[in-house]
Amino acid sequence: MSSVIEQIEQQIANLQAKTVQSNTGKIVTIADGVAKIDGLSQAMYNEMIEFPGGTIGIALNLEEDFVGVVILGESTHLKAGDEAKCTGQLLSVPVGKGLLGRVVDALGKPVDGKGPIESTETNPVEKIAPGIIERKSVDQPLATGIMAIDSMIPIGRGQRELIIGDRGTGKTTIAIDTIINQAKINDVGLASGDPDFRPVYSVYVAVGQKNSNIARTLGVLEAADALKYTILVVAGAADAAADQYLAPYSGVAMAEWFMSNGMDALIVYDDLSKHAAAYRQMSLVLKRPSGREAYPGDVFYLHSRLLERSARVNEDNGNGSITALPIIETLAGDLSAYIPTNVISITDGQIFLETDLFNQGIRPAVSVGLSVSRVGSAAQIKATKQVAGKIKLELAQFRELAAFAQFGSDLDAKTKAQLDRGARIVELFKQPAFNPLPIEEQVAVLWGIQNNYYDDIDVSKIVAAAGSIREFFTTRKEFLLVSIREKAKIDDELQAELKKAYDEWKPSFA
Amino acid sequence: MTRDKQIINYAKGLLKISLEDGQFSEERAAAVLQSLEKNPPRNYASVLKEYLKLVQREVANSTAAVEHAGEIGDSALEAIRSKFSAHYGRNISVTTSQNDSLIAGIRVRVGCDVYDSSVAGALKELEATLS
Q1: Which residues does chain A have within 8 Å of residue B122's beta carbon, measured at their own beta carbons?
Q2: Residue A296 pLDDT > 80
Q3: What is this structure's pTM?
Q4: Whose CB has fewer CB within 10 Å in chain A, the N or C terminal residue?
Q5: Counting one residue from A and one from B, how many pairs have CB atoms under 8 Å apart?
Q6: Domain limits of chain B?
Q7: Using an 8 Å Cβ cutoff, are A488 and A442 in contact?
Q8: Residues A86 and A158 in one domain
Q9: Residue A1 maps to a domain
């Protein structure tokens, strides 16, 4: 109470001869969340503009006679003739660990009803990406917990890996699985007390999604106890286009705090197709010239400047990283549309999900031929490389052969063997949603396929066999899993132990 | 509702010839209006409206509109005029109007810049700080 009185007394003392200068303008027109303002001669690009009632806007079009301002949030109380004021500040959002476990809007204000955010720091929403000198190469793995991805399309800390596919092919599920896996790894790592352990904090940015979907995602993260390491930035389908445009930048500003403070962050943009559509809407209302598919000319820059902020920085610049998993929704599997090609060219690889595979029950429906990771293999642990080095090639060959094998029944022994093996790998990679696997379990399972332990098991029983061997390892051979995790490679001793374990398990499953 | 670029450019041209040494001149503006009346251009009304808008903006940029609560002396107004003329690098004329809602103090507007040293403004800022 006394501090408030002191604050008021201080303010009154300051009242004496203080002159406040402000640059003002008047709303000429206001429609669709965009105000055209006469005046504001000193407005800067991206500056926050204040309207009556505390409403905030961003100056996006600086014209000779007018300033085009996009209003954030509710704008129905504003009318032509109202005064607008420059604030001299760029848009900023709260950052820090106080945001973990919270759901916030594009301006960083809480929307989860859990009270105010405990944060004293803010970061500007728009920031230049780290330069060449500040960066460090990607060489630490970021395990997704999805066997098909960790073995064939590995992701490293600081990488940008696009998740792309049609609607309903499991794009969000992969991203959520990855967040859950980070939480599981964090729990184990922090409990171990290892001083070198680096937890990964996640930021999930929902752009233009149905509120029911966002609620479901929140529920899944809560159920998996992953919310405590996660920040949810929400700009739903009912929010203004300006909020949807801003949300990814707000999310990355929050993730940058972790990166610049020596921590690792994972950010999911779900999804950038809707983000581009929101930006298109805003640009058309601002009367900016439109180009291909009515997107404005700078739609590439919209995504490149966002994704370039994901990086791994060196010791002099924070020694942290931001790994980005942008999501793009395609129409009828068309990868050559405008936004998909843009984002494919910006990112360091893509995970392409196919509707056909999804409908065949192959989930996650990762298309091996079209998916690639450009930098992640450098970050893969040696144990995974040892057991999964050839799997991608074998699976790609299987898909090709399977297509040809449909036309003839007479197959030579070698082709038949390849087909049999491929079918088993496909079965082995089937994994239920929200059930990420630790990397050591993945290695143990893949070691079996590499050493032909599944060859005499019927294809229809491979999923059960994989479940059985995982259970066998976790209940009876946990020391082996710990050994894989700690050594991160399979030496002769481990090789012998794994062989012994498989020989012991095989009769019990048969 | 789209404003024709040609009309805007025409009006800007008219404003240019209404200036004398970079300052708006009433004599020149009167001459411009006379000339326009004799030879009205296409979209005469629109041109005049646009010209009026530009003139208003130009006049506002050269005028310090002083709102005050209570009395304000001539010496204070002269000080305001000379300070703002020096600050903006052009001759600034001063207009005054009484505004009791300011409670005490003055508020000066030059173009889109507002300088507020009134009690009402300070209270508003205090309210914003506390909320």
Answers
A1: 15, 18, 20
A2: yes
A3: 0.89
A4: N
A5: 47
A6: 5-60, 62-130
A7: no
A8: no
A9: no
